[in-house]
Specification:
Blueprint lengths: L1 H5 L11 H20 L3 H21 L12 H20 L9 H16 L2 H7 L4 H33 L1
Length: 165
Amino acid sequence: MDRMIATLFGIGWLKPAPGTWGSASAVLLGVLACVFLHPLLVPAGFLLATVLGFWAVPRVLAGSADKDPSWIVIDEAAGQWLAMSFTVVPLWRHGVSILDAWPGYVAPFLLFRLFDIWKPWLVGRADRRGDATGLMLDDLWAGLFAGIVSVILAGLYHGLLEPML
């Protein structure tokens, strides 16, 4: 069960770029949850993936020489859902469908991948820990930064650009 959680039920075995597959599948699941169930399942998914990741990842890595195998993608799901929460929750509060605000899931995806690959500041510091906690934390930091930048970009668009159009 630990490996199923860590690989996001096998998505981590997809090639190439398992991290991107993990992030993309999290976005797809998040959009489906928003459309067919309830938007608050995205932040709930973030919390669940975070708790399960912090539980499963150390167990999977125990005794392994590789402390950050690419097939572990529960961290990408947690970080991606955190990033999406920054746009999903305001859209829900304003009664706007995520499908009507498509940048609401595209921007967090692209920004999350950018921060996850670039690893600036706290993202890189967490990654350099070289342990299970760092494996989870770097994606949570990347998700937080992606969410914040998504909100800033939405504010710039709606506050400055949209009125001029």
